[in-house]
Amino acid sequence: MKHTGSYGRFGGFYVAEPLIPALEELEAAWLDAREDPGFRAGLDRLLRHYAGRPTPLYRSPTLSEDMGCHVYLKREDLLHGGAHKTNNTLGQGLLAARMGKTRIIAETGAGQHGVATAMIGALLGLEVKIFMGSLDVERQAPNVQRMRLFGAEVVPVDNGGGSLKDAINEAMRYWTEHIRDTFYVFGTAAGPHPYPSIVRDFQRIIGEEIAAQLLEEQGRLPSAVIACVGGGSNAIGAFARFVEEDGVQLIGVEPGGHGVASGKHGVTLGAGRPGCLHGSISYVLQDACGQIHEAHSISAGLDYPGVGPEHAHLMESKRAEYVSATDDEALDAFAWLSRSEGILPALESSHAIAGARRLADRFGPDDVVVINLSGRGDKDLAHAMAALERRAGE
Amino acid sequence: MSRATPAKNRITAAVRARNAAGQGAFVPFLVLGDPDFETSLMLAQTLADNGADALELGFAFSDPPADGPVIQRADERALAAGMTPAKAFDLIEALHRTHAIPVSLLVYYNLVLQFGVDAFYRRAAAVGVDAVLVADLPPEHAKDAVEAARSHGVAPVFLASELSPPERLERIAALAEGYIYALARVGVTGEQTDVDPNLSAALDRMRAATDLPLLAGFGIGGPEQALAARRAGADGVIVGSAIVRRVAAHLDDRDAMRDAVAEIASTLAAAAHTTL
Ligand SMILES: Cc1ncc(COP(=O)(O)O)c(C=O)c1O
Asked: Which ipTM score applies to this complex?
């Protein structure tokens, strides 16, 4: 391996020996592709004409009024596929093809990464297998249908709690068994090196566009960038451009579930401890012995007891801060934005909105806050409507 | 060559003793605490009484990505019965009160980290553990663990596979003590019906990098594969899922469980101990 993938004391590649040559091959291909203008140009073409970049930066009048500052939404919900995940899968898909792999696999929670992987598989003519926790297969049914329509095989995973961490375990096992012809399209900025760096690089375009769009419209950089954090890919994509810009607050919002005190949450950075999960050292929700806890969130995409190592480092170095929003607060934001502006946010992204509204007091009328609207909520309709009705009945 | 000098490590010595007689070593695997503390202790004793030259003992982990379904279920049973690393060490201590058999551990790194790296190896040494393999700890990240292992006289063991190129094998050999865990297949744990045709060449490459015994494991399901692994050049075999499957098949009858485990252990031991 050329690099260790360290972010301060976090990161690394803690995997069993058979995976090491595959990670080395991946790192080499990525370092090579990064320097190849042809690769970049091909990816840019796809991002623009296939996926619809750049996505708009939209000033939200009701959120601006509500929070008493300028609030912009980065509209990743308008990206083809319905979430930021497409930025990463187009990049990794092209990398897989460049490496001559014939099969791509992925884990998925909300199904957005699975859909985005199935899309690029269809486009490039690659065989696609998606591992998805059986609980998530149920609560994200429309995305399962989309994956199947795109020609992917969806493999339900019953192990553990049947959610994202279990899907990752199963995808890693399948990869270990089929290492020679299979490319693992990892969906978030976690996992073993080089994935956290690769995913950050492919998602970085979110923050680059935010900076360019805001400079053009307001002649300045934002006061704060706010994003939800599951594994951390949309957040690191939104943050990366601004990490060196001291004036820009970086705020991640973790899924508070039923509240930290209930033990049913996904507040990995806020309530976890450093540990080793899925190939890297980062914060982990775990018991005193190191057994991994099930996370809980109303949103399948945030339901993860780990988090990308760069976020752990950004938190410990105090460059970014991490807050949480509960299931209820996210549902409120989901309903509120739909009603007030006709924008249906993903339940994941609803956490970012809820977290931002909670921090409104710290911003004044001259401040510019950008919330990353990481995806659209169509996939969540049945699940969210049922939860809203249940709440109304209580 | 260290081959000529007597081995300090008890596992190395046990394998060498078999090899000196033209035989291979038999190292069966159990998950500690599967299905509960007392039964697991009885099973470890049963293996020691039925031909095992050393034991490979796993610490149950909630998220074992290198393991197939049979060992995943064993981890789940042990955890459901309240197994912890501290109790697993106690179990080994109890085993060593009646059986002096050498023991190697198979663990995932988070369990070592949360126990405390130095504390983990200190406790391992205290209960008579001879070697520790951390499945998800490659040599690049193993500095702390290897230092702690060496300072407490425990052998750090590493995996090597047919995909590990010669430079990597050198790097593994430079850190490893006790034995090399030679992957009999590229994949996760689980019984297979035949032995990887690349195993022989892979073992040759490993042999060129190290004097340590090469124990082949992952996928060895029965006596035919044990014999095939020996013929491919392995100094011994490690067998997990084939043992654990017998445990899972008799959860409602401890006597039948012991008999089934004793029988498969004797069969596998006979194959491993066959003089080639
Ligand atoms: C719309 C949306 N936002 C956010 C996430 C969370 O992932 P990450 O933290 O990697 O951005 C997901 C994951 O499925 C998602 O679908």
From this structure: 0.96
